[in-house]
Specification:
The protein is α+β, with helices and mostly antiparallel strands. Helix 2 crosses helix 4. The protein starts with a helix and ends in a 10-residue tail after the last strand. A hairpin with a 2-residue loop joins strand 8 and strand 9. The protein folds into two domains: 84 residues, Arc Repressor Mutant, subunit A, CATH 1.10.10.10; 156 residues, Chorismate lyase, CATH 3.40.1410. A six-stranded antiparallel sheet has the order 4-5-6-9-8-7. GO terms for molecular function: DNA binding; DNA-binding transcription factor activity.
Length: 255
């Protein structure tokens, strides 16, 4: 970073120079350099006041530079805490997998908060997916998933009662797929998953620690075991924390 670091040090000692590049653009590139090298991912960025004093610019200029980098995903604002460099996105490959085991494989500590669990009549789409009769009940779970203490996803799922009797009496803060395997001898063997983008509503945004309207990745998955539908789960993942990778193979019949 030799030359770049020198330019940062000169800016710090003498302020940003007047020139063809606006000062907010100069500051934006300085902060981009800091976020890409000197500061580790997840590190706090100096406050608006400190940056304004350090680089001899107005707080409005600082706010514009930081705002552009937040829009690009280089920085992120956390309400009540400050501005931070972003962490690398988790690359999620589409397959039937436990969130708990997936996070552990990545060296992260998974946590689950059970927000609600009850027996209820599911919406018609879920009743159809699970093969339920009209007005037949199912188990409903509402959970918040975290990794290393950071909220990552909100899950709202329905489970066929005949497949998992007594589910609500179990520990639902651990890996649900491990519970299905060990307690019910069920291995989820196949599933149909729909992926879409959505904006965070107020409730989901509050749970995930983001602003309402922020982008989310939404996964709705209907999974089967022993040839019968067991689970209809919808998960809302933070769009700034996840990306999806899929293996694409051309149909041999088309070659």
């Amino acid at each position: 970073m030799g030359e770049g670091r020198g330019s940062v040090q000169r800016a710090r000692s003498s302020g940003l120079p007047d020139g063809p590049m606006p000062k907010h653009a100069q500051l934006r590139e300085i902060l981009r350099e800091l976020a890409g090298g000197e500061l580790p991912s997840g590190a706090a960025v100096p406050s608006e006041r400190e940056l304004a004093l350090r680089y001899g610019v107005s707080r409005l200029t600082v706010r514009e530079a930081v705002g552009q980098l937040c829009s690009e995903g280089v920085l992120e604002r956390v309400r009540g805490k400050g501005t931070f460099t972003t962490r690398p996105r988790i690359d999620w490959q589409v397959h039937l997998a436990s969130f708990t085991e997936d996070m552990r494989r990545r060296g992260m500590h998974p946590e689950t908060a059970l927000l609600d669990a009850r027996e209820a009549i599911p919406p018609p789409a879920t009743a159809q997916a699970l093969g339920l009769a009209p007005q037949e009940t199912a188990f409903w779970l509402f959970r918040l998933r975290k990794a290393d203490g950071m909220p990552m996803a909100v899950e709202r799922g329905w489970y066929h009662q005949e497949a998992v009797p007594g589910l609500l009496d179990e520990d639902l803060t651990a890996s649900l797929y491990t519970l299905l395997s060990q307690r019910y001898r069920l291995q989820l063997e196949s599933g149909t998953q729909t992926v879409l983008a959505d904006d965070a509503d107020a409730e989901t945004a509050g749970l995930l620690g983001i602003r309402p309207g922020c982008s989310l990745l939404v996964f709705r998955r209907v999974s089967t075991a022993r040839g019968k539908p067991v689970e209809d789960m919808t998960s809302w993942y933070r769009g700034d924390r996840y990306q999806v990778t899929m293996q694409l193979d051309r149909d041999p019949a088309e070659l």
